[in-house]
Specification:
single chain; about 325 residues; alpha/beta; Rossmann fold; two-stranded parallel ribbon; 11 helices; about 20% strand; globular; binds uridine-5'-diphosphate
């Protein structure tokens, strides 16, 4: 089997490339290195079944050639991280909308199966319960830039389902919840690498807002396992699956846990959202997945618990 991973030099994409090589795939990666990084591929760069193309997914002739070679397309290339999205709204919309449109159109021309990596952001500002795939979405105002990302990924999902229903293109949508693990950089705002780096350097751990907002984290190795298995499950076609872990923690408690596990003397500081992301920023107070659907279909359950996830990030930064 041959797989194409768009965004394969990124944090999640590079772990997926490793897993697919283990599963005996021949792997083609396309990445424009906007947020991806060649060092992420160091472990596998000499593997004979691994091929890297540095280019944008908007280059249609390159994409056409790559898609024609692949049996399975894992579409991960997208704008990533709240900071990037707040700082580069045009590029975010451009790559998320046009990029996915191009991938689906070309895949449809050649009738190749596609897995779209989507995001739990599409649920928006739900509070009450664990989020299941058919829930309504609760979006903020169009004036609030953060929601552009959620809406662009929602549009990607609509388009993928439209291709499935109207053109019979086999597609699967994986909605990833907060994914953590080695190689994730704190540069684009993600909380765990930022907390761990600050703790290890003895710098203040900065919690945005009052820290009562909560998240459910999942390890990147669990995420790529779920994606690889969803791709080969025929019953997953034309459907959406949460890929997450329902263990929930507040950001304040996460800061304490990181401080404790690193044995750090860092202070835990609170800073207002406006200071972190500019005026009018809206955060999700809670985001926890209902994971019954993926569990029932492919028996998927995450292997990593929270301490093991945090430890893997600590070990990575210590290295
Ligand atoms: N956060 C924080 N300090 C940081 C980075 C993030 O308190 O240095 C908070 C952020 O406001 C959010 C949570 O941690 O409430 C998760 O943030 P992240 O950007 O990792 O993911 P997302 O907001 O997309 O869930």
């Amino acid at each position: 089997m041959k797989a194409l991973i768009t965004g394969g030099a990124g944090f999640i994409g590079s772990h997926l490339a490793e897993r697919l090589l283990e599963l005996n795939y021949e792997v083609f990666v396309i990445d424009n290195l906007w947020t991806g990084n060649l060092t992420n591929l160091e472990k596998i760069q000499d593997n004979k079944r691994m091929h890297l193309v540095i280019d944008t997914i908007l280059n249609e002739s390159v994409m056409c050639e790559l898609i024609s070679k692949a049996d399975h397309i894992f579409h991960l290339a997208a704008a990533v991280g709240v900071r990037k999205i707040m700082d580069h709204p045009v590029e975010t919309l451009d790559i998320n909308v046009k990029g996915t449109e191009a991938v689906l159109r070309l895949a449809n021309r050649l009738k190749k199966k596609v897995l779209i990596a989507s995001t739990s952001e599409v649920y928006g500002r739900h509070m009450e319960h664990s989020l299941s795939e058919d829930d309504n979405r609760v979006m903020g105002s169009v004036k609030k830039r953060r929601w552009a990302y959620a809406c662009s990924k929602t549009l990607d999902e609509f388009l993928a389902l439209a291709y499935f229903e109207e053109k019979k293109l086999p597609v699967v949508i994986a909605r990833l919840f907060n994914t953590v693990g080695p190689r994730q950089t704190g540069e684009y705002g993600m909380v765990l690498p930022n907390f761990v780096q600050s703790a290890l350097l003895g710098k203040p751990i900065t919690v945005f807002g009052d820290g009562t907002q909560s998240r459910s984290f999942i390890h990147v190795k669990d995420v790529v396992e779920a994606m690889a298995r969803l791709m080969v499950e025929p019953k997953a076609e034309g459907d959406i699956f949460n890929v997450g872990n329902h263990h929930e923690i507040t950001i304040k408690d996460l800061a304490f846990k990181v401080k404790e596990m690193t044995g750090s003397n860092s202070e835990i500081d609170h800073i207002p959202y406006e200071k972190a992301y500019g005026p009018g920023f809206e955060d999700m107070e809670r985001r926890c997945p209902d994971t019954e659907k993926i569990e029932n279909l492919i028996g998927f359950q995450p292997a990593y618990h929270l301490e093991a996830m945090i430890q893997s990030v600590i070990d990575y930064f210590k290295e």
